[in-house]
Every structure is written in C-alpha cells, then in structure tokens.
Amino acid sequence: MINLYGVEIKKLEDMMTREGQKPYRATQLYTWMFEKNATSFDQMSDVSLKFREVLKANFSLEIPSIFIRQDSADGTIKLLLELADGAKVEAVLMRYSYGNVICVTSQVGCNMGCSFCASGLLRKTRNLEAHEMVGQVLVMNNLLREEGQGQRVTHIVVMGTGEPFDNYDNVLDFVRIANHPKGFAIGARHITVSTCGLPDRIRQYAREGLQINLAISLHAPNDEIRSRIMKINQVYPLDKLMPAVKEYERLAGRRVTFEYILLDGVNDSVEHADELAKLIKGTLAYVNLIPYNPVIENAYRRSSDEKVHAFLDRLTRLGVTATVRKEFGTDIDAACGQLRAKNVHEEKR
Ligand code: SAH
Prior knowledge:
CATH superfamily of the largest domain: Aldolase class I
Bound molecules: S-adenosyl-L-homocysteine
Mean pLDDT: 94
Largest sheet: 10 strands, mixed
Strand order of the largest sheet: 3-4-5-6-9-10-11-12-13-14
Number of helices: 11
CATH class of the largest domain: Alpha Beta
Structural class: alpha/beta
Number of strands: 14
Shape: globular
C-alpha cells in the first residue's frame, strides 16, 4: 500500500498514466485530499466506482494519530503523534502575528549528536516518509479547522527532530507537496528547511531550482568551538561548509539564515560576535540568534539578556543583519532543541 499523501504530484501523474488513466486524475485526487479534506476514496464522487476500487486496492489515506496533545499558555500546541508502525514524533504549532507556523519533524530520533539538543538523545531509528511529514500538517490543519475562522497552517519550518538533509529525498518530496498550488499551496518563501550543515546536500539543494528558504545551524564562530558542541563539524568543518553556503547563494540566488544558539560562556562574548561577523563576511546571510532552551540532560546555561543584547548590538554595528528568535511553548518543552522522539514504551501521561 502506498500512502497517497506522500506521492508528489508529478510522480502521481506518471502513476496514473501507467494505470491507463489520464494524468489530470492526479490533480483531481489532490483536490480531494488537500482542498476538500476527503478522508476516504468513497467521498471522491467524481471518480468512477470502478477506479475508486483500484485506488482502494493500491493506496491509503492514513494520517498520524494524536497520542498526546499539550497546549501552552501562549497558544502553542505540541503534539506527540503516533505513526503506523507505532513510532512517535513531535510536531509544534506556533502562532505568530503573520500566521500559523508548524515545526515539522523529519526523522525518528537524530544521529547528528549536537551536544545542546534534546532531539539527538535518542539515536535515529528511521527516516520519516514524505506522507508522515505531510500528515503532521494535515493533523494540525484539522485542529485549526475546529477553531474556525478559516485558520490553517500558513508557514512550515522543517526544524523538528531530525536532520532533514539526512533524509533528503523524502524532505524534498514533502516541501514540493507543501508548496504545490494543488497541495498545501504554501508559498516557497513561507517554507524553511534547516540543516546542521551537510555540504554535499547543500550543493545539491542549490540545484533544485526551489525558492524555499534554507537555514544553517552554525552556532559557533570557529572550528574549535563548533567541533566541541556539534559532532558534525568534525566531519565537515567550516572550510567545507562555508564554500557550500556561498555556492548555494550564487546558484539559488538566495541568502541563507545562520542560526546561532547563545550558550553562556561558550560562544556568547562580543569577541565571538566579531569572529562570527568575519566568518560570514562575503555571504549575504542573516543571523538568527536563539536563546538556549534548557535540556535536563546537558550542562549548558542560557546567556543573560544583557549578553544577548550586547552580542546583537555588536553584530548590527558590524553591518550584520541579526534578530533574536521569539520563543514559544517553553512551558510545554516545545521550544527549539526540546523536541524528542519519544520511545515506544513510554507511558501515556
Ligand atoms: N537538524 C536540523 C534541524 C533541527 S532545527 C538543524 O540542526 O538545523 C532545530 C534548531 O534548534 C537548530 O537550529 C538547533 O540547533 C536549535 N537547537 C537545538 N537545541 C537547542 C536548545 N537547547 N536551545 C535552543 N535551540 C536549540
């Protein structure tokens, strides 16, 4: 059985043609799935009974189920979702003034081993399929629809558990489905993929012809610190990462966002800001400073507000565009770096 929600529309057209159908069937199915919110093939009244049987025999429309829902005082929703094989992943919905942003998980667990992040505490057990990422958006859209007022997910960040570029093909299918006018129809500029910095995949992404935003988890101004806090830097140090970023900027014609977590006493001095400005000179990049969110299992501390502001001021004075990321859902462990792939034996709370 193939889950239809993960079949990118061009691939679906090819499948339909192979089944002896007209390619427009793909658009027709997408309309039922993404616009009319059909939950079964029987609802697809303009599809012949005979072909509905063919669809039922080959495809499913299953979506993840909600295992636990947590609501934050600020309106953030965190869901622990159960997938068909029992694996559990988290997805978060944040309400910005400009729209509803979903943070999507791309893998069950993560192998990147960043020392400050909770998501890597459980090793990767598998990649998510495209339909399982689409499913996270569908489940949130269902909740938003219940709230009324025509609410829906308007922005996507692939910044949940996992390294999206370690699951490249499925993540690309997912963002294409999200972006397609017959899919979620979310504009490319409203979708962001975040990577810890895999140079080959960044170069590949640069050639996809996509306008989808790219964010790079940089977090350090030099190799010494970066290798200490991010294992991936021991494999792909800055002299491998930065040229890939520049190639992306050149080929895609887009700037990246550098994410930079401020860790007290580790990477948050004004000298580090100077070094950071120098490192990213020659890129068009913009820096998003992230206040560290506590993870019980590690010993880092959050930088004081004064230090955060001194860091921001210094970057700004050096001509680097920088902002401090707004925080959501800290009271329900839904903030950056706090998402986990819950293990299957965990008790329902
Ligand atoms: N693996 C990808 C996608 C995850 S994005 C990546 O590394 O980019 C999640 C973002 O939250 C990353 O920028 C990550 O570095 C950041 N993050 C991780 N742990 C954090 C913590 N404890 N506090 C704040 N941000 C954190």
